[in-house]
Amino acid sequence: METVKHHEEAHVHLPPRSVWPIVLAMGVGLLPIALVAFRTGHAIVAELLAVTGGAVSLVSLMGWAHSVVMDKAEDVVTGHLSMQQQDLKMFLKYFLLSEAAIFGGLFVHYYSTRYHIQAWPPAGTPHIHTHDPAIATLILMFSSFTCELGLKAFEKGKKFHAKTLLLVTALLGLIFLSYQGLEWGLLITQYGFTVETNIFGTMFYMMTGFHGLHVSIGVIFLLLAYGRLELGQMNEERHFSLIAASWYWHFVDVIWVLLFFSLYLI
């Protein structure tokens, strides 16, 4: 037993070579180019770039996730499961840290711009009501609670409760996105408030839209984790997909609370 344990500790888990990270970088790289094209008046080009970038990013994420699943299955056979799970969690922490850095840059830019403009929000900005966004915030916060309950339920062997709570969490995420879409529609159609109205409009739609994209990805992660539960591909010792979906969802919730206070209350 000690020999096996020593061998596992000495083993360094190396993931298989994959082209998906490069493909993902290319897909994500198209998104800011699409934004620049839109701002320079090339709407059709911007739409094509945005759709292509989003599709490439989604496919690459799915392909990357599939390669990770296959790698995990191999490590179960070779007996290096615990080391591999630790490496995956460390990767997830670095990934969330990089995501936090991106949002941090947006927050720094927002507050820097706000500091240098005497009247905030600038002229042309309608009164943005906080009632519906506050409800959406409570829904998203509650979804974080149901997500954590689902993870804990699975770790205790209560798979039915875990699957139910995952579906509830995904549904709450979709409700949140519906609230956001409704707010955008009202601001654009009733008040003519768009990304071109002023600097606040640009940053408001950019920050809430970027977060909405992350919520959409989070919902996909939750549904993928649910699908793997249905297929019986996870157990109490091997369920990184569920952990990753849960951590990512908590991260998205925290970012929205900061956005809500920054854009709506302060």
Explain this structure.
The chain has 266 residues and is an all-alpha fold. The chain has helices at 2-10, 20-39, 43-78, 81-116, 131-155, 159-191, 199-230, 240-265. Helices cover 82% and strands 0% of the residues. The N and C termini lie far apart (59 Å). It has 2 domains: 1-79, Helix Hairpins, CATH 1.10.287; 81-265, Up-down Bundle (Four Helix Bundle (Hemerythrin (Met), subunit A)). The radius of gyration is 21 Å and the shape is globular. The model is unreliable at 1-10 (pLDDT under 50). The chain has 8 helices and no strands. It is found in: Cell membrane. This is Heme-copper oxidase subunit III family profile domain-containing protein.
